[in-house]
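Structure ticket #2291
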Amino acid sequence: QVQLVESGGGLVQAGGSLRLSCAASGRTFTSYAMGWFRQAPGKEREFVAAVSWTGGSTYYADAVKGRFTISRDNAKNTVYLQMNSLKPEDTAVYYCAATLKVAGTYGPSHYSYWGQGTQVTVSS
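Resolution: structure written out below.
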């Protein structure tokens, strides 16, 4: 079992940057691949990025490739999402997720644990 808590969301103007954090806690002795998802009002939850805890592999949705960077600090049990050149279309609730499966460009069903989400709003 793992508990996830997102932070760092907020309001930013188009072209700006924001850094999301996801802190993991719990007495677990296995490694987790981590992912970021987002969901806008009236839309389905969509994959944003993923990273493996045991390797340096990263994966991105085409919509954010080149603008977003996912990273992790295993010593702090924290995964980050650095978001640059933000666009109004990036506005959504962003969720952190963990899975015992391998990392990749998988959908929400690939993940077992979820945070509560953090709101990101990009104004024009």
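Closing remark: The chain has a mean pLDDT of 94.
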